[in-house]
Design goal:
With 316 residues, this protein is α+β, with helices and mostly antiparallel strands. Helix content is 15%, strand content 33%.
């Protein structure tokens, strides 16, 4: 058996293990909160934007290209909701129009050229497009039907997760040296008449294996429901019709250091805060989410694919 076949066998065995443990990971009675299916949410996202800075190295002996994806799926359950679509606000340096496009927002896919051996740093800002303030939404966590009485758990609003270095799976010649993402969002209490509401709001988009380096206001705690992610979480209180702004920053890889340490339930974290960026509320996030176990399997597949593509496929 050659090394390529051996490696594929290892991936297969790891996947089998992931499938066998995913049921336990999704079992609400095994060290995780139980998510009970709700009717709707009083608090919803009404705006979302992100500013991304990446450094990418071309390890190939010829020119390569990479571009901005204007569609975010992550762990969103698109069978019952829509992905998040983005419009590009600006790029630095100025991006090139790509030779073909796949954007569902417009007909311009924007990206950059990387020369052989070159390491390029680019930044860009995107704003959520597909839902406006007239149709706010939230990320729903699939849960069981309500058969519990007389008490229920209220875990708050869910997050979604993604792998920052998926570009290495798509093109093994492109090495993601670093990734930094700054996110801003608004939430609103959609009830304008009844008493104030209170609960937990999590960051809507969270990168895996990344450090939470900034939040404003300071996070109440870092949620560890997904073991590979430091999910920002805030304990919020909103009066009828009130809106609030939140922002946060993640950096990948985690070797860069982090000031946020601990587990879910801790009171607070030493994450630096500054004045919030000035934005106008108009666009929210998408709805839905997927179970933890399925994401574990997906992450194993991507991680195995990246490793295989980078270290073994070149030798075939």
């Amino acid at each position: 058996m050659n090394i390529n076949k051996l490696f594929m066998v290892v991936i297969f065995l790891v996947l089998c293990s992931a499938f066998s443990t995913s049921g336990a990971a999704d079992d609400p009675f095994k060290d995780q909160q139980a998510w009970v299916q709700e009717q709707d949410s009083e608090v919803k996202f009404t705006y979302l934007e992100s500013t991304i800075t990446v450094t990418i190295k071309n390890n190939n002996d010829h020119v390569e290209y990479f571009k901005i994806s204007q569609k975010y799926t992550g762990t969103l359950d698109t069978t019952s909701g829509s992905p998040i679509y983005w419009t590009v606000v600006w790029t630095d340096p100025c991006a090139l129009k790509m030779i073909k496009y796949m954007s569902d927002v417009d007909e311009d896919d924007l990206g950059w050229k990387v020369q052989p051996g070159e390491t390029k740093t680019v930044s860009f800002k995107v704003r959520a497009y597909n839902i406006n303030s007239s149709f706010p939404n939230y990320i729903r966590q699939p849960g069981s039907n309500n058969t519990f009485w007389p008490l229920l758990n209220e875990p708050g609003l869910q997050a979604s997760w993604f792998l920052p270095n998926e570009i290495e799976y798509l093109n093994p010649s492109l090495d993601l040296v670093s990734w930094k993402g700054h996110f801003c969002f608004w939430i609103k209490n959609m009830d304008t008449t009844r008493p104030k509401v209170s609960g937990i709001v999590r960051a809507p988009i969270v990168p895996i294996d990344s450090n939470l380096t900034y939040s404003n206001p300071q996070v109440t705690y870092v949620d560890k429901q997904l073991a590979w992610a430091n999910t920002a979480a805030w304990d919020v209180l909103l009066y009828p019709g009130q809106s609030k702004h939140y922002s946060y920053t993640y950096q990948w890889p985690t070797s860069g250091g982090s000031s946020s340490k601990g587990s879910a339930g801790s009171a607070s974290y030493n994450i630096p805060t500054t004045a919030a960026a000035t934005t106008n509320a108009s666009v929210p996030t998408s709805e839905t989410g997927v179970p933890f176990g399925l994401f574990v399997v997906g992450a194993v597949i991507i991680a195995g694919g990246v490793t295989y593509a980078k270290f073994f496929r070149k030798n075939e």
